[in-house]
Amino acid sequence: MLLAVQLVSLARPAYACGCGAMVHDPKTTMAVDRETSAVRWDGRTEQIVMSLTVNGSAPDAAWIMPVPHRATVKLGDPELFDELSALTEPAVRQRHYFWPRGGDWPFQDVDGAAAPPPDARGPGVGVVGRERLGPFDVARLTATDPDALRNWLKSQGFRLPASLATELRPYVAQRWEYVAIRLAPAERHRPLTGTLDPLHLSFASDRLVYPMRLSRLATTRQSLGLYVLAPHRMEPRSTIGGARPEVFYAGRIKPEGAVRDLGGSGGTFLTAIDQSFPQPQRITGDHELRRADHDTPFQRFRYTDTLLKVGGVPAWILTVLGVLLLLAAAVASAVVIALRARRRASTSEARRTVSSSTHS
């Protein structure tokens, strides 16, 4: 069954998200605010779980993602990104301060609120599989010519710009395949907005690559978040025209739950990377990630400041009381010494007076 079954009536230009060409009605709007993906690579097979956060007025849309080999597609586990977010949260460390601040007594407020072989269905294009996955209609394609792929998609309802064929040429030259995905919400005519259900793609790959070339077609700033699960710490080979990638977590983990389902039960190194692309047209190609020189762990810290207490009593109060007691003791000691000195002086004076009277 041809892609027309799931992509019927789409006559839309292509825009880009980080992973592929986004397609929607030109009379509507759609923006991909955030693209977050979890990538698992064991040296032979790569898995990508994609989650897109979108907003706009488009009631439906589709996107095309190139992959280096035949891909299988299924729905991803929506709990995966919650678990990855929890794993990479900043560790909480406590710091103490001595003197009271706003909110501490006495400065507190009075209130005190606390796949099958290719199928020759068109010139230069093959449909190798089609699935309905929840809100998605998915078709997997092959192509031996970028213009043939563009023309075939156009014949199925897509009106794609010539620039897309240009960007597809390197993929066609490398014999990559394509996953075409249509978002088909349960409620018709309701705008697509919020975080979409994740999709899970798997394909053979002898290198860890994340498709980004089609993002050159984007006209707005792009934001990418990658959770990379691999035997060792990974790093991008280059910035590919974006800002410097920032690692916000790196460490060996013991996968559990949805993370274990993706990364396996053995010890896995998790590298979490954020990157922005202020000028998408400068993107030079796909992200290829390589093993870092060292498996150096990294974690962010969030500090909580707490008033220093001893036995439940603020240390500054104990210190002030201690100083006052010491001052009081010093004053009392000085008074006692002065009184004793005065008594000795009085006694000596009395003795001298008595002695003087006796001699007289």
Structure characterization notes:
The chain is α+β, with helices and mostly antiparallel strands and 360 residues long. It is built from six helices and 23 strands. The strands form five sheets. Strands 3, 4, 6, 12, 13, 15, 17, 18 and 20 form a nine-stranded mixed beta sheet that branches. Helix 3 packs across helix 4 (162-173). It starts with a helix and ends with a helix. Mean pLDDT is 78; it is low at 1-16 and 109-122.
Portion in helices:
10-25%
If you average the pLDDT, what whole number results? 78
Element order, helices and strands?
A: HEEEEEEHEEEEHHEEEEEEEHEEEEEEH
Radius of gyration, in angstroms, nearest whole number: 35 Å
Indicate the low-confidence ranges by residue numbers. Answer: 1-16, 109-122
- Strand segment tally: 23
Q: How does the major sheet shape up?
A: 9 strands, mixed
Q: List the total number of helices.
A: 6
- Beta-strand content: 35-45%
Shape verdict = elongated
Structural class based on helices, strands and sheet pairing: alpha+beta
Q: Note the gap between the termini.
A: 143 Å
Based on the model shown, name its key terms.
alpha+beta; 360 residues; 9-stranded mixed beta sheet; 24% helix
Task: Write the SSE topology.
Blueprint: H1 4-7, E1 14-17, E2 20-23, E3 30-41, E4 45-56, E5 61-67, E6 72-75, H2 80-87, E7 91-97, E8 120-122, E9 125-133, E10 136-143, H3 146-155, H4 162-173, E11 177-183, E12 194-195, E13 199-204, E14 208-210, E15 222-230, E16 234-236, E17 246-253, H5 257-263, E18 268-277, E19 287-291, E20 298-299, E21 301-307, E22 309-310, E23 313-314, H6 315-359
Parallel strand pairs: 3-15, 7-21
Antiparallel strand pairs: 1-2, 2-5, 3-4, 4-12, 4-13, 5-11, 6-13, 8-9, 9-10, 10-11, 14-19, 15-18, 16-19, 17-18, 17-20, 22-23
Helix pairs in contact: 3-4
